[in-house]
Amino acid sequence: MFIMGNQRRAFTPEYKDEAVKLVINTGRPVARVARELGIVEQTLSNWVKAHRDRYDASDGALSETERAELVRLRKEVSDLKMDRAFLNYPDVRIMPMFALKR
Q: 33: how many CB neighbours lie within 10 A of its CB?
C-alpha cells in the first residue's frame, strides 16, 4: 500500500501581505479571496488574524517586508557614510586621486 504525503506550499511574506490587503482593503470575505487565490480558507484567515493582531497591538508596527527593507536601507546608509568618510580623508598623500578640490 502506497500513501502519498501532502507537500506544504511555502508563501513569501510579500505574497501574504498582498493576500491580506485584498481582504482588508476590498472588504471581500476571506472565503472568496481564498478561492480566487487558490489557497485554503483557514490559511488566509490565519494570516488576516495575525495581521490584525500585529497592527491592533501596536499602531506603528512594521510588516515583515518593511522590516527587511529597513534593515537593508540602514546597512546601505552605513556603507555610504563609510565611503564618504573615506573620500573625505585629509591625507592626500595616501589617495591623491580622491582628493577633494577645495
A: 20
pLDDT at residue 85 greater than cutoff 90 = no
CA gap 27, 12 in Å, rounded = 23
Instruction: Quote the crossing angle between the two packed helices 41-57 and 13-26, to the nearest 10°.
Output: 80
Q: Give the other-Cβ count within 10 Å of 38's Cβ.
A: 7
Question: Who contacts 31 (Cβ-Cβ below 8 Å, separation ≥6)?
Answer: 41
C-alpha cell at 13: 511574506
Entry pTM:
0.51
Contact 65, 15 (CB under 8 A): no
